[in-house]
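Sync notes, pocket subgroup
Present: LS, DG
LS reminded everyone that the earlier model was apo-only. Rerun requested with magnesium ion included. Inputs:
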Amino acid sequence: MASAHILDHPLLQHKVSMIRDKNTGTKEFRELVKEIAMLMVYEVTRDMPLKEVEVETPITTARTKVIAGKMVGIVPVLRAGLGMVEGVLNLIPGAKVGHIGLYRDPETFQAVEYYCKLPVDAEERELIVLDPMLATGGSAADAISLIKKRGCNNIKLVNIIASPEGIEAVRKAHPDVDVYVAAVDEGLNDHAYIVPGLGDAGDRLFGTK
Ligand SMILES: O=P(O)(O)OC[C@H]1O[C@H](OP(=O)(O)OP(=O)(O)O)[C@H](O)[C@@H]1O
Ligand SMILES: O=c1cc[nH]c(=O)[nH]1
Ligand SMILES: [Mg+2]
């Protein structure tokens, strides 16, 4: 069974508090989501394997380490996941980027797929799925199912704010996937929005409401 990891670095907690604030405008919200994604992926990649190499320094030869193992792909769930892409690419510039388009039907809260484009060699990569919000967990679980259908089995999920129900749903559907979150909130309201949450992440990122 994979684990849910709560990333509670003080900088993350501070920045999450700022995006929760309804008075934080679109520009600042976008910048903060980017920074949060960067701080989160720093922790998410902590177990990356290393290999020893030899490097000529200006002084002598050094035996030193570089990243080894699988290459990385990142998969934002449209739209809101897009806000996390730049922050992750700042730290892993060689990552390929796939996209999964899902929206949540406002009546049924079921995820509806409208787009999926993954890197051609996705099954050879470690894939990091990005979405700021994990509410019912339906969108994340469906996104991971789509990725698995393409033969990918090395998947991590990164959400900024999660509900306990969302974490449980993903763990049940995909027990092999580690989930990384910066905050676990109280639960969901009647519209399946996270409480206290931050509202609609996509609308706040793109100024659509
Ligand atoms: O866990 P769930 O209950 O599935 O809800 C979470 C999903 O809802 C939001 O997307 P939304 O449907 O609002 O689409 P958007 O990013 O285009 O606004 C969010 O970014 C997640 O993808
Ligand atoms: O709280 C929520 C739930 C779903 N989608 C969001 O953007 N926010
Ligand atoms: Mg939305």
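DG: Residues 77-80, 102-104, 109, 111, 131-140, 166, 192, 200-202 surround PRP (ligand 1) (CB under 6 Å).
LS: The longest strand covers residues 155-162.
Action: DG to write up.
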